[in-house]
Design goal:
The complex is a heterodimer of chains A (about 450) and B (about 300). Chain A has a single domain, classed as Formate dehydrogenase/DMSO reductase fold (Up-down Bundle). In chain A, about 75% of the residues lie in helices and about 0% in strands. In chain A, helix 10 packs across helix 11 and helix 11 packs antiparallel against helix 15. The two termini of chain B are about 25 Å apart. Chain B has a 5-stranded mixed beta sheet. Chain B has a two-stranded antiparallel ribbon with strand order 1-2. By secondary structure, chain B is an alpha+beta fold. The chains are: A mainly alpha (about 450), B alpha+beta (about 300). Chains A and B meet through helix 6 and helix 7 of A and strand 4, helix 4, helix 5 and strand 8 of B.
């Protein structure tokens, strides 16, 4: 296995500099744009006619918009895991993964904020959150921590980019004038002097320390949107930890998928090596086991007691309408990946990619299962309401908007990779300098 | 219909009072022709403050605004010195749903939605089924108010929980928080008659409903301000609903009046989901010594049963 350490800085730079889209890249971007546009079209319809275009009702008053929101918040947590926790723990192999995880964090949290606006009945009154905001409401806590996390993540991404911007300005004849102009606007002040370097290093450490509690907050507070209510399935003291552990799992799964794709598309085999997959695989196993543990707590403890109100909800999950989805999320989203990843052979890129996809897809449906079945099992019987309110299957507009938002996240990541190096050039070179030849 | 009629009567009374007030304050007779108004020749009979019937030319009548409007600030405070409560006597409910239709009619609730739901309840396999009309509980520890991010739903000093549809951002957190499933959402633009849609919105009338906002039973504070009973109370032919003020310790269904504390004590009143700590303002009297058989009530439910 070749190590990037053997390469010269010039080779590393030319390998990692952003490249124009190839044919596949263009097709991919066009497809994403199309999905995003369909989503935008559906949203315009929703704005015109109101939320009646969704299949939500007075019982399922939160549908896939909210579960998608929870999914985005969850996956965005990975930025803090890979960058901040790994940096503070001084994990040496993190370099090629940090930027991937940071851009996942920034794009996902952006769309988390957007999708919550989509869910509002009166989006034009959004400013009321600031004019008439009540600090007692968990929604306000979410607004505060998510905007804080967004800013902190963006700052972290930006500061870690600065030395690379300098490298890219130097390589302007290769990247083209419009890009060079943009890079100069972004970071021409960065000269890489010793004083600047020191400041940068300090800032990153500081942000890394700050971002961990903020990251825990975003998902804990998101879990409280549910846990602060009385409803069976939500009324749980386990919820914060359960959500945070699930978030780390789906985030790590997302990073595995992204690193596999970037490695293939940009031919980064020498930078994202099998060793990285092996390490991430072990982390993924640990996180999947942790999440499974919280799931056992979340479902089996109430199932042991089978309180009347919990019973209908749990039965719908275990054996009822939601059973296929529930067992899919548990088995495909957790148990199979664990079985793949505990074996060294399963921690090879291809198998890891499959496990990563399973984790991410399972996690998306898991969020749906957290939101919807509970709402279908209110305390009082479903009565004197239209029959269609007793069921929920999202309308095409909801699917289109949700798909559009997922496409939007991928678009941000795609465009980012077009404009910036997806692996830090500067860090890869300095890692090479500081490490003794093996 | 009788409700609308009584409202019309009230307005007529208001009209007269206003005229009388004008008569007292100005030296000029209110009925003296104004310069730019030409008599139409058509006379209208009115009752004067002295109880005499007088005739006035129609052209001299000026429309008075529909209602003395209460400011949003006052609406948010509530009616001073009051603490409203409701007692629902389950032994009297025959599932007629007159409460529901009156409520829906007066609040222009969406044709498929209901603010008052009349549940068919059965607590255990062996116990008797009964009908349970459910309004908003107007909790003293309202979970909906706790979670509202913009103070759109609020608790007033008179105990009423209201929604300000001009403030609501439509996040629906209150709907998730309410354990009584009492809140409904205006998923689409409400279909309203032009005159209803043109009314000035007030959180006390909850009319007109607005798209993208939450609605629910409001305890009819507009009626209460006029010293009248909520629509469900006056619509129920069986006197199921008692409404009143805990501070006065009295509740009435329009024909019978009870001391509130005695009523809930003597008849073992209870509140729904007491264990959640929401402290509802709605009390229930258990379905004992019933006036009707459950099966009799079921017949009233046939069209609704199709819906559910």
């Amino acid at each position: 296995m070749e190590n990037p350490q053997k390469f010269s800085p010039e080779k590393i730079t030319s390998d990692l500099l952003p490249q124009p889209f190839g044919r596949r890249g263009k097709l991919w971007t066009a497809a994403l744009l199309l999905v995003a546009l369909i989503g935008a079209f559906a949203y315009i319809q929703q704005l015109r006619k109101g939320l009646v275009v969704t299949n939500m009702g007075d019982y399922v008053s939160w549908g896939i918009y909210i579960s998608n929101f929870v999914f985005f918040v969850a996956i965005s947590l990975v930025g803090s895991l890979i960058t901040a926790i790994f940096r503070l723990a001084d994990v040496p192999w993190r370099t090629p993964l940090t930027r991937i995880s940071e851009i996942i964090a920034v794009s996902a949290i952006t769309f988390a904020a957007l999708i919550i606006i989509v869910d509002m009945g009166r989006p034009e009154r959004m400013l009321y959150l600031f004019l008439h905001g009540r600090l007692q409401s968990p929604i306000m806590w979410d607004v505060i921590v998510i905007s804080t996390y967004f800013c902190t993540s963006l700052l972290l991404l930006y500061i870690t980019l600065l030395p690379d911007i300098k490298i890219m300005i130097a390589a302007r004849e290769k990247l083209g004038t419009p890009f060079a102009k943009f890079y100069r606007w972004l970071g021409s002040f960065w000269k890489g002097t010793e004083a600047q370097e020191k400041m940068r290093d300090k800032s990153i450490t500081l942000i890394c320390i700050v971002i961990i509690p903020v990251a825990f907050c975003i998902h804990t507070v998101t879990s409280w949107l549910f846990a602060t209510t009385y409803r069976p399935g939500w009324d749980s003291t386990n919820f914060g930890a359960y959500f945070v552990s699930g978030a780390f799992l789906v985030g790590a799964g997302g990073v595995v998928v992204a690193m596999y794709v970037f490695r293939r598309v940009y031919k980064l085999e020498h930078y994202i090596t099998e060793r990285h997959f092996d390490k991430m695989g072990k982390i993924l196993v640990m996180l999947a086991l942790l999440y499974l543990y919280f799931n056992v707590n979340e479902y089996l403890v109430p199932a042991f007691k089978m309180k009347k109100d919990e019973e209908a909800h749990l039965q719908a999950l275990f054996t009822g309408d939601f059973a296929p989805l529930f067992w899919f999320a548990i088995i495909v989203g957790m148990i199979i990946p664990i079985f793949i990843l505990v074996f060294p052979k399963g921690r090879k890129p291809n198998a890891m990619f499959a496990a990563g996809v399973m984790v991410v897809v399972g996690a998306w449906f898991k969020r749906y299962l957290i939101v919807t079945p509970t709402l279908l099992h209110p305390f009082l019987p479903k009565f004197d309401a239209p029959a269609r309110y007793s069921h929920y299957f999202p309308s095409w507009q909801e699917w289109a908007i949700t798909s559009g938002s997922l496409a939007g996240v991928l678009l941000i990541i795609t465009f980012f990779a077009r404009v910036f190096p997806i692996i830090s050039i500067y860090k890869t070179i300095t890692d090479h300098d500081s490490e003794l030849p093996s | 219909m009788s409700i609308e009629k009584s409202r019309r009567e009230f307005i007529a009374a208001g009209l007269l009072t206003t005229m009388a007030a004008v008569a007292c304050n100005s030296k000029k007779s209110p009925f003296a022709p104004e310069e730019d108004v030409q008599p139409s020749g058509e006379k209208v009979k009115l009752l004067s403050v002295d109880g005499e019937i007088i005739e006035v030319d129609k052209a001299y009548l000026k429309p008075v605004p529909h209602m003395p409007s209460v400011s949003n600030e006052e609406i948010r405070k509530g009616i001073p010195g009051k603490k409203f409560a409701m007692v629902i006597d389950l032994s009297r409910c025959k599932n007629l749903k007159k409460c529901q239709s009156a409520c829906n009619h007066m609040h222009h609730v969406h044709s498929e939605q209901n603010w008052i739901k009349v549940y068919q309840m059965q607590d255990a396999e062996m116990t008797a089924p009964y009908f349970q009309p459910t309004t908003c509980m107007h909790c003293d520890e309202p979970p909906c108010v706790k979670v509202c991010p913009v103070d759109a739903t609020f608790k007033r000093q008179d105990g009423i929980v209201l929604i300000d549809s001009d403030r609501c951002i439509g996040c629906r957190f209150c709907m998730a928080a309410c354990p009584y499933s009492t809140r409904v959402f205006n998923w689409e633009e409400p279909e309203l008659a032009a005159d209803v849609a043109a009314q000035t919105y007030s959180a006390e009338t909850s009319v007109p409903q607005k798209r993208g906002t939450v609605g629910k039973c409001d305890f009819c504070p507009d009626m209460t301000r006029m010293g009248m009973l909520p629509h469900c109370v006056s619509a129920c032919p069986n006197g199921v609903f008692f409404f009143g003020d805990i501070n006065e310790d009295s509740v009435t269904n329009g024909s019978e009046t009870f001391r509130f504390s005695d009523l809930v004590k003597d008849k073992s009143g209870y509140r729904l989901m007491e264990d959640l700590g929401t402290k509802p303002s709605v009390y229930y009297l258990p379905p004992v010594n019933r006036n009707f058989k459950f099966e009799e009530g079921l017949k009233n439910d046939e069209p609704a049963a199709k819906k559910a």
